[in-house]
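The protein record quoted for completeness.
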Amino acid sequence: FPVTIVSYEVESMILPMLKGKHVPRLLATGSLQRIPYLLMEQLPGQTLVQWLVELQSSGRKASVDEILRIGTSIAVALFSLHRQRCCHHDLKPANVFLHRDGYVVLLDFGLARHAHLPDLHAEEMRQPVGSSAVLAPEQIVGIRGDMRSDLYALGVLLYVMATKRFPFGMPKGDAALKRRMWTFPAPIRKLRPDLPAWVS
């Protein structure tokens, strides 16, 4: 519950500061005193998690072209965000929106960090915050990290697109999270030997 309140405050402060097609347009906000809400534009397309579910249900594997196209689009969206001095810190399939026009929109800025605003999560939380499957090592040990944490998460997403699984699964609890620090994921080409040799 406290994380939810802090995340609402963070997103309501950060979203109005961000510009460009790679972030959703914020139309209205509520208040914690009455009804907290964030109203955003409706976008045509689907999330990366929906794309992955469709991939799974069809029984097919993502092609190299698809992985490169989507991965590049995510990287471009992150570059736009980072140029605005903001780190996302929760880059997971549900928070990556594949716009119908071919670009990526990043969603859910509740865990984000902006260089020109106080970092409420660093001040209020002592435990790692974020999705366990994509957390960078520094986030696991309680350091908020920087833009490199988003690039780590992008690497995780590329792995997921190629293999249809997370490199470290979905660890639950502190002990399982910390075990990630000392384990290595299965090489991509062990799971997808059909991919070219330069994919590793």
The first strand starts at residue 26 and ends at 29. The two ends are 40 Å apart (CA to CA). The chain has eight helices and seven strands.
